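User: My collaborator sent over this chain with a note saying "see what the structure looks like." That's all I know about it. Can you take a look?
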Amino acid sequence: MAVGIFVIAWNSRSYLNNDYLLFLGIAYLFIGGIDLIHTLAYEGMGVFPTQGSNLPTQLWIIARYMESLSLLAAPIFLTRKLDQEKTILGYLLTTFFLFFTVFYWRVFPDCFVSGVGLTPFKVISEYVISGLLVGAILALVYNRRKFDRNIFWLLASSIGLTVLSELAFTFYVSVYGLSNLVGHLFKLASFYLVYQALIETGLKEPHRLIFREKQKYEDLVENINSGIAVYEAVNEGKEFIFREFNSAAERIEGLKREGVVGKKASEVFPKIKEFGLFKVLQKVWKTGEPQHHPASIYEDERIKGWRENYVFQIPTGEIVAVYDDVTEQKRTEKELEEQREKLRHLHDAVDELQRQEGEEDILQTAVKVAENILDFELCAIAILEGNSLVPRANSADLKTEEMVEFKVGEGIAGKTMLRGETIWGDDLRDHLEARPTDEDFRAFISVPIGEIGNIQVISKEAGKFTKRDVELVEILAGHLREELNRARLEEDLRQQAIRDPLTKLYNRRYFNETLEKEVQKAKRYDHTLAFLMLDVNRFKEINDRYSHQVGDEVLQEVAGLLKENVRNADTVVRYGGDEFLIMMPETENEVYEVVERLQQALDQWNDQNTLLDFPLTLAMGVSHWNPDQDRDVEEALKEADKEMYKDKRK
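Assistant: Without extra context I'll predict from the sequence alone. Here is the result:
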């Protein structure tokens, strides 16, 4: 019977909705094999004459453990695909391993002692197995909706009989006793019920399962919103006959299924060849490759409209066309194109945005552009800083402190930013979250500038703005976002060009550009420029002993010390390698105060930092330049460099 269960499960696996019964079929093949050896192990069979009654009892327990665990695990394969080869191999290896524990290693626990009866291991095992089987029943009940009602009761009854069988085996004292016989009868009945479940599922009524799948797909075809037409090629593909026409197709074409099915495609749709679909049907019929017939207009004496078709071949050889009426979509697209044409004048105004360089100029220009397009009382732009929308530009010349700042998610502006979509309305009084700066404000448009910020347009007239106005502001917001990103990118690139990437100090290129300006300023106002050149002592030793990574950290620490101990007007530069330069305008002897302050800061750093095992020191050189000197500024720089090297040699 176990072999029959496996054979039926294996050969009907293509009909099964899931792999639950297939898994049980494989399991019962090995369970039945163990039960066969169990039967042959009885003394009267003469196969193992010297083993006594313990051997068949051990084999029985092995088979029942395997059966109960299999029944408990089977529900997994209601939703998971079964790897058939690995499952068979797993059961085969497990079976051989258990046989080795009984026949070769003889380590499997005794289950029956002659003259005494069942061992504690055997009795406990029967209760454990019964518990596993109860768990299997609960799992089956939990998943009962995935089974036919009859199949569910057959499987549940089979497991229930198996539980009764195990309980019967917990108290016999002779392997030939009545309880043993009852247990075997229950076991036989349980096998039969699994067998019957597979017969019911795999052989007796596979057509019912097929019908269920067919019904499911028929329901899908009938309830889908797209039209579905099924064609059969006749006369070597020179003509196509309708074989199916769903409800959506009836609605789209204004035809009844009864008047379409069985007729030629060219009769129902006389212009199908001019439409181009006929060639697509022929191509799919010849090649079997799916095709897309893009949205095209179909027109005959009866109907006119846009249709988009997806055509493919099914295993029966019939051709299926899934299509939609996209007439309304095309009409909308045409209207949008006409509207875009009307809106293109906006781009002429936006060109002015592209001529702006700084972020502030771009924001103010955007407000002016909006003023030229729409009629409103207030246009305000806020930029996202952290979690707050900070006012940066407005059309009413309000000071930023007079404007309301919103958190993301707070107020109309904050909600616009949180949602990332436009919010507009006829009257702010209808929105409790609104916090207008003027009680007379009514109609509003609030548009996100991408992830950058928000632009708002407000009118004192309720219902002032139309959908077209909203589109204008959205287009403006899109251009504004691009220009702000451009300005920020240009600023980032400029900063990258003038700053040292490691220390974030100005680089030598920036210093050369700034030096000329400071010289001109010093000449104009007769001021003195001071230069402080610095070099990290023993820097090569630091790199060699501690690695270049530590050397980089030292340079960063030195850069931090320099920035913390100079004025905002001073320029700190990484001059090259481990050399730094500080240019201090309008400074004479104060530079020595800076030197002293730097030395104190460096001593404090040495006391607190464990980056090096020796004190970090700086070589420093000072020079001054003013317009009265009979030398140029380059000579003053050379003097500072020379003084620094003198200090380095001390």
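A starting point for your reply to your collaborator: The two ends are 102 Å apart (CA to CA).
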